[in-house]
Amino acid sequence: MSTPGTAFGVYIHWPFCAQKCPYCDFNSHVRFGGWDEERFLAAYLRELNWVAQKISMPSHTASRTVSSIFFGGGTPSLMKPQTVGTILDHIAALWPVARGAEITLEANPGSVEAGRFEGYRAAGVNRVSMGLQSLRDSELKKLGRIHTVAEAKAALAIARDTFERYSFDLIYARPGQTPEQWRQELTEALELAGDHISLYQLTIEPDTPYAALHAAGKLIVPDEEIALALYEVTQDMTAAKGLAAYEISNHARPGAESRHNQLYWRYGEYAGIGPGAHGRLVVDGVRTATVAERNPEQWAGCVEDRGHGYTEITPLAPAEEADEMLLMGLRLAEGVDLSRLERLAGVAPSKAAIEGLVDLGLLQRVGLARDDSATWRGNELDEIAMCLGPGVPPEQPPAARQRRVGTFRETIRATPRGRFVLNAVVAELAASFAPVTPELFMDNRGAEH
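-> structure tokens emitted (449 positions)
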């Protein structure tokens, strides 16, 4: 949870897809007649301008540096490479961009999208995240995917040759899937993987075709016992391959984690640009939640009328920040630094709630000793840390981390089983929040004073 105060992310949401998948509740739309890409490009640039002006306080402007940019969707690989390049150039004109910043674009493995990879690389994209979802053609059809396994493997080969880094997604816990079937499919996937892979359990989201089928008894997903067995297969096999579970569904070799997603999970600051995008900005020293209009054409119209498409711009209360920080941070193997939670939101979960979850095997307490440069490595050697994998070491040197008064700086993190029932763990901790007197003041961008 030690994201530097200067880190700043930009998320660009592209809302269009060639086809809507029946399990998907993301803000994605099909336009069989196409879309006015020039109009949307102009709207992206204008909303970026509005955000830059909104957060341009003299005390903050110089310290913001873009550390990561993420094109999500929808299907961003339906964008023209020239559109991506223009957006990236505009971001660089508004804020400094860190040397070696991570610039990710989500892509589907269809032949049209893969044919554009060279153009995206030339535009500045250095990482691609591909939605394979399955390595079984029959399962791809059930998931509503329009590519084949052969196309997926061909696109992966192009991605591997084109980009510095690549990752792909698979969905498991599909209807009728057994642990042995998943073990076989995951074995094939890990042979194709580079230094990062995302493995998501299928969830039935409200207001999707899958939800209607599930309610009618026509779609039966694995029960909790089988789902847990599938999850344990996933953890065991990825760990054996050297791809540590640094987050609930994300696995990587040390140093290859998704930096942009880490910014979210470590509760950093980021701008959400585009239809339906969410953001967390610091405005006048207050962390502020932004939510944009979901309908693409209505969003573009709002931007044209008033400079932005946000339907909600909401300052967050400390209790809301604490809830969000716990929910995001406990997804990570590295966990949540309680001292940062106290400084940021002025609250802490009770010792009784923490100990109760520890006794249930859902949570682990980790004390980091002051002025001990070997502490981080030492904590990797305890039993549960070995189960979780090495996690991600804090980005600041030990001397900068150990600033809190006292003998220990405590971190809590969910065990593998705790992450499987994370919402319940967070609810238990949040219900026990009590005000504390912070020993250091921390502003909403994470900088200590």
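The domain at 7-263 is CATH 3.20.20.70 (TIM Barrel).
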